[in-house]
Amino acid sequence: KHDVNDDGFLDMPIYNQINIMNRWQYTNAEKGFVSFINLKFLNDDKQAGELDFNPNNDKLTTNHWGSEIDTKRYEVSAKLGYVNPEIPWQSIGVQTAFSSHEQQSYFGLNTYDITHNSLYANAIYNSIISDS
User: Fold this and answer.
1) I want to staple 48 with a disulfide (CB 3.0 to 4.6 A). Which of 13, 36, 42, 116 is the partner?
2) What keywords sit in the KW lines (predicted)?
3) pLDDT-derived band at 131, boundaries 50, 70, 90
4) Per-domain boundaries in the chain
């Protein structure tokens, strides 16, 4: 805990953060397939407030002012593409992504909890029209 200016409040939050990310890729040029899968995870916990603030005893009370922000985020995305080996200017692909963001927090006596989910999908077809 740091309070360099002696005002009784933390100068920077106490925090714990975990980030995990992995990506897999598969390519088969002979058959024309390309694919990617990405996974991400974030867990971020922060505590701020007075030096004597103890969340076990003081959360949402007027004993000591404090705040906590606990965030969890999950993300998954994928791409799948096919390029016709016999007609290389002709291809089709699909992209998808999903994210989930959950945050539980309070600032003094005020709570602020959110949940947000997002889904994205896209399909692409590419070819030559006529004889261009």
Assistant:
1) 13
2) Receptor
3) confident
4) 14-126
Give the three-state DSSP class for 57.
helix
Residues 105, 69: Cα–Cα separation, whole Å = 4
Beta partners for residue 119, in sequence order: 98
Strands 33-49 and 14-28: antiparallel
Predicted local distance difference test score (pLDDT) of residue 132: 59
In DSSP notation, 98-125 reads: EEEEEEEEEETTEEEEEEEEEEEEEEEE
Residue 13 to residues 36, 40, 51, 104: CA-CA distances in angstroms?
A: 37, 24, 10, 16
Distance CA 78, CA 19 (A): 19
- Residue 65: the pLDDT is 94
Taking the alpha carbons of 95, 18, 56, 65 in that order, is the dihedral positive or negative?
A: negative
Query: Alpha-carbon distance 91 to 69, whole Å?
Result: 45
Give residues with Cβ within 8 angstroms of 76, minimum separation 6. 37, 38, 39, 40, 97, 98, 99
